[in-house]
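Weekly sync, protein design subgroup
Attendees: M.S., D.O., the rotation student, P.L. (late)

Item 1: inverse folding check
M.S. brought a backbone from last month's batch and wanted to see whether the design step gives back something sensible before we order anything. D.O. pointed out we never logged the input encoding, so this time it goes straight into the notes. Structure tokens as presented (348 positions):
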């Protein structure tokens, strides 16, 4: 396959990812160190601890990625790195290493938005180099990005051209999963734990769906509060808490909100397909529900494998491949920007 071979670094939160991606599509290496077990003790991410762990793992992941890909520095065309959004301490680890590597090895530097990386995970493949690439997603593409820190509906007109249709007005979907997981005394992270508890369970109640001013905006703070009241009611009555049933009802409410607004947006904007991205995109019920509802309109659902939904270097390498081809370059002045937004176009 032709195209730039890019070393990509992702360190925006608590995963340390380094990958080698060719042409923005084919993965040659994708090494990730996770901190899930470490942060389980506190039930959530402690930024200072996350940054220290990034320092611990970034060089081992770099060495592992280079060894797995078999590429030496002379075979690389660029270095790419996430420079936002994310935790400032964690971002700085990746950004500073990427800038140093680019200078030392005289390679171009490409800065990548973390959200854009989640979107471009849908372009990735790990097929061997002698096999043809699968077709690329077609435009216009509706992208639902759902993670611990972000919930956004993005209309992608072409490479690098985005319109923000809607986003959460309070908690992100993944954040709500973690908070409700703590309410139900389930292990961290809450998303996988709630999904596991909900398998085969009958919802214990029906939680409300929030109304928002924007037709494609989301709100999950009130849902979290409703779960807290439900749990408190069982405790006040001295009754056992139906953890599985409440988990099922909560998951049903989140998935319904995400899927319903995504389907409406897909219809209104005449998209060719819908793409999922972000850690919550690994949720089985969300995938199945959205695929079923979109199929009724003849629309395909694109979903990366679960390992590419959570934070990783390969998704940054995918986005960087297309930005590199478009001539985007950064330099030593590149800074970590915790609240970085995509370059939005005006609303249609």
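Designed sequence read out in the meeting:
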């Amino acid at each position: 396959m032709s195209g730039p071979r890019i070393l990509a670094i992702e360190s925006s939160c608590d995963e340390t990812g380094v990958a080698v991606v060719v042409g923005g599509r084919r993965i040659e290496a994708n090494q990730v160190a996770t901190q899930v077990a470490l942060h389980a003790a506190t039930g959530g991410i402690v930024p200072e601890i996350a940054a220290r762990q990034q320092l611990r793992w970034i060089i081992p992941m770099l060495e592992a990625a280079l060894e797995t890909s078999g590429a030496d520095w002379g075979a690389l065309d660029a270095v790419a790195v996430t420079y936002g959004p994310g935790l400032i301490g964690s971002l700085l680890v990746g950004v500073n290493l990427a800038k140093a590597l680019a200078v030392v090895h005289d390679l171009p530097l490409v800065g990548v938005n973390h959200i854009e990386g989640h979107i471009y995970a849908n372009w990735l493949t790990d097929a061997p180099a002698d096999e043809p690439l699968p077709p690329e997603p077609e435009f216009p593409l509706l992208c639902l990005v759902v993670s611990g820190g972000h919930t956004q509906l993005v209309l992608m007109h072409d490479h690098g051209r985005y319109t923000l249709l809607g986003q959460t007005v309070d908690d992100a979907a993944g954040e709500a999963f973690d908070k409700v997981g703590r309410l139900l005394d389930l292990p961290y992270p809450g998303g996988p734990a709630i999904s596991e508890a909900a398998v085969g369970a009958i919802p214990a109640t029906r939680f409300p769906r929030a109304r928002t001013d924007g037709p494609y905006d989301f709100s999950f703070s009130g849902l979290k509060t409703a779960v807290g009241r439900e749990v408190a009611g069982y405790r006040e009555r001295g009754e056992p808490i139906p953890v599985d049933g409440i988990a099922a009802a909560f998951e049903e409410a989140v998935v319904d909100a995400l899927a319903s607004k995504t389907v409406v947006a897909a219809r209104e904007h005449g998209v060719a397909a819908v793409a999922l991205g972000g850690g919550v995109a690994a949720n089985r019920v969300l995938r199945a529900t959205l695929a079923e509802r979109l199929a009724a309109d003849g629309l395909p659902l694109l979903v990366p494998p679960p390992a590419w939904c959570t934070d990783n270097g390969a998704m940054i390498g995918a986005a960087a491949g297309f930005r590199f081809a478009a001539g985007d370059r950064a330099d030593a002045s590149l800074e970590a920007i915790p609240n970085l937004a995509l370059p939005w176009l005006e609303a249609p």
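Discussion: The radius of gyration is 20 Å. The longest strand covers residues 26-33.
Action: P.L. to compare against the previous round before Friday.
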